[in-house]
Amino acid sequence: MLNRVRSAVAHLVSSGGAPPPSPKSPDLPKATSALPAAPPEAPRSPPARAERGSAAPAKTVEARASFSRPTFLQLSPGGLRRADDHAGRAVQSPPDTGRRLPWSTGYAEVINAGKSRHNEDQACCEVVYVEGRKSVSGAPREPSRGQGLCFYYWGLFDGHAGGGAAEMASRLLHRHIQEQLKDLVEILQDPSPPPLCLPSTPGAPGSSDPSHLVGPQSCWSSQKEVTHESLVVGAIENAFQLMDEQMARERRGHQVEGGCCALVVVYLLGKVYVANAGDSRAIIVRNGEIIPMSREFTPETERQRLQLLGFLKPELLGGEFTHLEFPRRIQPKELGQRMLYRDQNMTGWAYKKIELEDLRFPLVCGEGKKARVMATIGVTRGLGDHNLRVCSSTLPIKPFLSCFPEVRVYDLTQYEHCPDDVLVLGTDGLWDVTSDCEVAATVDRVLSAYEPNDPSRYTALAQALVLGARGTPRDRGWRLPNNKLGSGDDISVFVIPLGGPGSYS
Amino acid sequence: MLNRVRSAVAHLVSSGGAPPPSPKSPDLPKATSALPAAPPEAPRSPPARAERGSAAPAKTVEARASFSRPTFLQLSPGGLRRADDHAGRAVQSPPDTGRRLPWSTGYAEVINAGKSRHNEDQACCEVVYVEGRKSVSGAPREPSRGQGLCFYYWGLFDGHAGGGAAEMASRLLHRHIQEQLKDLVEILQDPSPPPLCLPSTPGAPGSSDPSHLVGPQSCWSSQKEVTHESLVVGAIENAFQLMDEQMARERRGHQVEGGCCALVVVYLLGKVYVANAGDSRAIIVRNGEIIPMSREFTPETERQRLQLLGFLKPELLGGEFTHLEFPRRIQPKELGQRMLYRDQNMTGWAYKKIELEDLRFPLVCGEGKKARVMATIGVTRGLGDHNLRVCSSTLPIKPFLSCFPEVRVYDLTQYEHCPDDVLVLGTDGLWDVTSDCEVAATVDRVLSAYEPNDPSRYTALAQALVLGARGTPRDRGWRLPNNKLGSGDDISVFVIPLGGPGSYS
After folding, report:
1. Looking at the record, which segments are called Disordered (chains A, B) (predicted)?
2. Which of A202, B43, B166, B241 is most buried, judged by most C-beta within 10 A?
3. CA dist B312 to A290, A317, A433, Å?
């Protein structure tokens, strides 16, 4: 086992260089993904086989059938082929003609430089109507409360070890959120605090006045106050979990291969909810100021959670890994010497005498983009990965991954936004080579070149951000103006204007 | 079980009011603490039995024997009796005459208003010399590296369910830190990065040059860089754990009853390390600006850690508790209805159908100062509590408590400090009724009334802070000028001046 993992890791960590393959994704050959790539449903984009005049061989056509891009790109078969071209890496955006994305949202994407067969990022942008279920209290619905709710939705899904999970999430996650919100339609529109308890079944005796649903008798002197906002957060959290469970259920039938990071924005009743599971990132640029709206979940940022789990459930380590962290690999000849280590409780380092079981491979190792859980995967939250196992082993990695997002809330009504205030979402292809400050500078530079009421300015900005991260082909690689390497990863960017959502709803 | 815990909680949460007993400590009669109160060693302060002319009955004398105050207060027997007087609540400080505390540190304390027999806070302030062990590399010590290290140390220990743990920690925790640093004396004084690996035993062949101790061959492409600072953090973290383990070992022989929060400051080689386990607090006030140096660890702030542990190790819940959180106690008649809940993964709330096991008592319940783990204890980190069990049950609570501090580092050399810049440490008796801003205002008000070079100004400031939190007796309680209730808890405060540590070392 030791040699096996060691050689896998040696491969993983030595793969840096130009042009850079993304070190985040578990390299496919090393992760045992039992099922071949094929989407759970026919993708909405026209498959390449429909392309007229194509001379592509049958094999390519078959492979293309599993490949789709977001429907809002409205790609023709020829456009889809260009979007799938690793050599040209043409930036894709929705066409300037035709229906715009809600709020005049800007979007741009580009495929990777060859690290995976297709672009494994996916995106979704929808306006979703939520019709309430039959009155939750069972009483006939009052007309004033019978209104459904609308939410605006943006999602970026960065796939790894296959595109299936990202594609499935891009098609279905907002439906799960819609489903979770159905029970809340009345409650969220009622200004009084949410009822703590509801009758079991619609139709059961009860009043629709939530305040009557709770018996006043309680052995606690106080009741916790639960806000409307925290109900929406809970709905999004549970939707992520249900999406992940659906992937687990359907992976056999529909062959959902791989996993994905998910970065999702929901706008509902004046508030923006940013939910992140993975290493994508969201920032607001408001009047030039940067407001972080997410943080990344990686083996480094979640080290202590991972180590604690390995410590409490050592059976998950399969006798192959140690939950302790060491600053480098221990050599067998170093047995008995004293090495720096950290356990699940420590943020500092200390020396310990090396014992036999310390020679096991560390659960968490590496630094930065090369950090890995179980020598395999570089992100610790997201959807899917139910088949992911340690190289040449049956040890599952999924127990260490969390499907739960961190949700941050931004109240749009608390500040008067101008047309230059935007929420920028990007997959790690953007952020690996672009700092928050550089993004803010590009926001300023590009938007000031357009009239404030020109709706195409946000697409232009998204394109500028993608181009700035991709660079241009030069010296056997994609390079930025400063001659550093651009991102060889898939890059996807949403630019959501905050200055006037009210007028769009 | 349900009724038993419920009545215990009803007692706990209904005990608010004037004068307020501290809701943090588990009330002694409810926590099964098997051993009577008696110190592990003779306290350094003179016991009351030595008091001349005392007419106290034998019983009181015996109880007093277990009571001590910090030695630096230099209390006479009469002074000790006044410090133990719940009615007068006289503020105690080191005498103006005689040796000052290091750095002219200010200190003040006051006993509680009757919530426990004695003042269960303890404090320590020491200068500790660390002599290196025989050269870690085994080579003869070079003269230039043979110097030991000095660190300055301040500790506040807020006891609960008895004073034994706080007293033991105040006497010994800095010795554990000293012991942990012994191995690091050479390394911390060597400007090169710490060696990752050391030979096993002093005297073994090897060089004293740390860079030679590590074989260059490594299967990882890079080694993690470990800083000197993180070694000190690790030493403090491990010292807390070893202190806690010593309490567990000696609780039978020496009868260490109860537990304590620990807030500790170490100044070493230009940096201030603030380690906090519990709900005491440290802030720096620098040029009027507030810099938080700790955060509190309570059932609310650590809810998800506690719930995760209960979820992963359900046997720790003993079939009596549920790891789910509910906003109020569920009534048996509500079975089948839908109630708001949060699990270990959620920050938002959602509804779930109430099942039989949801009627168990929640692992975490209550809000603010009334929040409790297992209906018993209101702090989730600290030392001791090895005997603490759920009321009328054998279920131990210790597995849910962490002895590990969070350590924050402040580099004193990065900023030129003036004599008005201070680090303020206080037990929750201070912070329950005083905001950070109010403390900063008092810092400004008191220090500006003294000459900058008057060393008594920091003691005056500590006294003002304690008095401001205690208030004065009025309307059947201790009241603040705004007529709100003052703190009825023990209150202890250190004021550490930052403007010139160099001149004291």
Report:
1. 1-103, 198-218
2. B166
3. 38, 15, 39
Residue that has been written with the tokens 């799938």 in this structure:
A84
Out of A56-60, B118-122, B281-285, which region has the weakest mean confidence (pLDDT)? A56-60
* CA pair distance A133, A262, nearest whole angstrom: 28
Query: Considering chain B, what is the average pLDDT of its residues?
Result: 83
Which helix (H) or strand (E) element contains residue B271? strand B271-277
Residue A141: its pLDDT value, please?
A: 47
pLDDT, residue B135, reads: 55
- Inter-chain contact B224–A367, Cβ cutoff 8 Å? yes
pLDDT of amino acid A134: 66
Query: Environment class of residue A409 by beta-carbon count within 10 Å: exposed (0-12), middle (13-18) or buried (19+)?
Result: middle
Which of B198, B241, B327 has its CB closest to that of A224? B327
Q: Where are the domains of chain B?
A: 71-133+147-191+227-293+403-497, 302-378
Say yes or no to pLDDT of B242 above 80. yes
Q: Taking a C-beta distance cutoff of 8 angstroms, is the pair A184, A232 a contact?
A: yes
Do residue A234 and residue B199 have CB atoms under 8 angstroms apart? no
User: What is the SS3 assignment for A105?
Assistant: coil
β-pairing, A338-341 with A350-353? Answer: antiparallel
**pLDDT computed for residue B67 by the predictor:** 80
Nearest Cα residue in chain A from B325: A224
Of the candidates B226, B281, B274, which has an alpha carbon nearest to the alpha carbon of residue B408? B274
pLDDT tens by residue, A21-50: 333 443 333 333 333 333 333 333 333 333
* CA distance, residue A198 to nearest chain B CA (Å): 5
A71-133+147-191+227-293+403-497 classified as CATH 3.60.40.10 = yes
Burial A340-357 (b: 16+ CB within 10 A, else e): bbbbbbbbbbbbbebeee
**Alpha carbon of A48: minimum distance to chain B alpha carbons (Å):** 41
Helices (H), A319-447: 428-431, 436-447
pLDDT category at A277 given cuts 50, 70, 90 is: very high
Q: Which are the contacts of A231, defined by CB distance < 8 A and separation ≥ 6?
A: A184, A187, A188, A194, B348, B349, B350
Q: Which residues contact A274 (CB under 8 A, 6 or more apart)?
A: A263, A264, A265, A282, A293, A294, A407, A408, A409, A410, A423
Which residue do the tokens 């408001």 mark? A286
To which residue do tokens 């600290």 refer? Answer: B382
Whether B406 contacts B275, CB under 8 Å: yes
Closest chain B residue by Cα to residue A367 = B224
Contacts of A171 (CB under 8 A, 6+ apart): A41, A44, A124
pLDDT, average across residues B58-68: 48
In A, which residues are within 8 Å of B230 by CB distance?
Answer: 347-349
Instruction: Read off the pLDDT of residues A80-117 as tens digits, 9 standing for 90 and up.
Output: 999 999 999 999 999 988 789 999 999 999 999 999 99
pTM, two decimals, is 0.83
A7's tokens: 């050689």
B382 contacts in A (CB within 8 Å)? none
**Structure token pair of residue B475:** 């309307």
Contact B309, B413 (CB under 8 A): no
In the chain, the amino acid numbered A310 is: G
Backbone angles phi, psi at B197, to 5 degrees: -135, 140
Mean pLDDT of A267-294: 97
If you measure CA to CA, which chain B residue comes closest to A7? B219
How confident is the model over B468-477, as a mean pLDDT?
Answer: 92
Place of tokens 């570089």: A378
**Nearest chain B Cα distance for residue A340, angstroms:** 5
Cβ contact (<8 Å) for A196 and B328? yes
Q: Quote the DSSP letter at residue B99.
A: P
Q: How far apart are CA B290 and CA A58, in angstroms?
A: 68
